Amino acid sequence: MMTLDVTVFHVALGPVAHDLGAGLDRVQWTVSGYSLAFGALLLTAGALSDRIGRRAVFLAGMSLFTAASVLCGLAPTVEFLIASRVVQGVGGALAFAPTLALLAAAYPPERRARAIAAYAAAASAAGAAGPLVGGVLVELLGWRWVFLVNVPFGLLVVAGTWWRMAETASPGARRRVDPGGALLAVAALLALNLALASVPEAGWSSGTVVGSASAAVLLGLAFAFSQRRGDGLVDLALLRRPAFLSAAALGFLGRMAGLGTLAFIALWLQGAGDLTPMRTGAALLPLTGSLLVMGMCVGRLQAVAGPAALVSSGFALKAAGLLSLAAAGADTGWVVATAGMVLLGCGGALVFPPLMGVAVAAVPPERAGMASGITNACYPLGTAAGVAVFGALFTARIGREVPGAEDRAATESGRLGELAPSVRPVAEAAVGGAMTTVCLAAAAVCVAGALGARLLGHGATGTAPAEPRPPGAHPVEAARTRR
Predict the structure, then answer these.
(1) Alpha-carbon separation of residue 2 from 20, 138, 248 (angstroms)
(2) Best exposed site among 101, 106, 258, 315 by fewest CB in 10 Å?
């Protein structure tokens, strides 16, 4: 649900602008508002969950996310919708941040890797399936159901949390909340996410981007200074653990080359095939399907191969898939494109589960929530960085080949059907060339990831250490006993 809501609303922007009487520039903040709040709070929410309880933070987040989904679905104005999406992003961050720590506590070591693999596959596939789910809901039920569909699932999760989930905060965890550090961390990540999110529209040299990036650097330095004693919001000593730091950095690169390229693959499909949003989502099924299928096999693969080998292989498959898509952008046909999406999905499924396991295994149990928050914070940053960097390459290529500002704008947004017949062939070639450029750049990122995976270490298992608990006490049984 949390990952899906990052991408599901892209196909609903036009209908929302029409129904609420707002310009597309304002409606786009319904996407940015959610992403900014979500990305800015992940680190803080994960660290706080170690202190006030991971179940409590997760439950608060799910409740807030579900309530905000109702408000979004009933929004009477675009301003109300934007505010509700921000609240929804806050709830999403609170629920998403402690998930790895909750999984590590809920499963014994021999089952933990498979559980994390299933979780990672579902989350990755949900993000990639966003355009398809959004297209189906918008075309069949209307844009409001993009949000309202969350409500029954959210209520079930809240009820299941009350009934089945035990609190997992470690008894020895330090309890100081550090509100100053929390505010600095949120402000720094908000400024960094805002800078990256503004690049596609404003450009790298705009005042918004430069100012936000500068503020992110200053706030980040202030945050690091505030944490130097080691008892604040984040234990900076974690960043000196090579396996943990490598897992976070590789997660950033994986998301950059994965979801960071998804929007441009979708634009190319719409432009090359003249597809509707729903058909575009259907055309992405080789990617989402392979993510899910391979994701179900990763748990078994982790029993016979270390995380370094799996992550390196995953990045290599992603690079091969992106090279195939680059060739497809040069008009080599749909068979090559389909093969590329399958390779990209299989590679993504191999990358993230081992990284999640390593991130939690590399830290003490009482820091598992903090590790989960830091790792999860790298994922939306990677997506935003991919959209920013690859978006600049995409628009620059189209800008060089398509004359006329209006024609360029229509080409960049995939609306090739609005172009004059004389311009359409040029625009199609420009989109294909831009797609090739983006995929080649993303493949280079994957090559760097494959090489960097060796830093994870060949001996690590990626299995998180067990939370301290009384003999024979499993979280589910503890929850029943407490009631």
Answers:
(1) 25, 19, 19
(2) 106
With pLDDT > 70 as the criterion, what percentage of the chain qualifies?
83
Provide the residue ranges of all domains of the chain, joining segments of one domain with +.
4-177+233-467, 178-232
CATH topology of domain 4-177+233-467: Growth Hormone; Chain: A; (1.20.1250)
C-alpha of 459 from chain center: 28
Half-sphere exposure of 322 (CA within 13 A, CB side): 29
Give CA separation, 79 vs 20, 21, 26, 187, 288, in Å: 10, 11, 9, 22, 33
pLDDT in tens, 133-177: 877 888 788 889 888 989 999 999 999 998 888 776 654 455 556
Dihedral of the alpha carbons of 404, 407, 409, 412, in degrees to the nearest 10: -120
211-263, pLDDT tens digit by residue? 888 998 998 888 888 777 766 667 777 777 788 888 888 989 998 898 888 87
> What one-character DSSP code corresponds to residue 464?
P
Q: Can you tell me the distance from the alpha carbon of 22 to that of 165, in angstroms, rounded to the nearest whole number?
A: 43
Instruction: State the average pLDDT over residues 368-395.
Output: 80
* Predicted structure pTM score: 0.76
Cα 361 from Cα 371, distance rounded (Å): 9
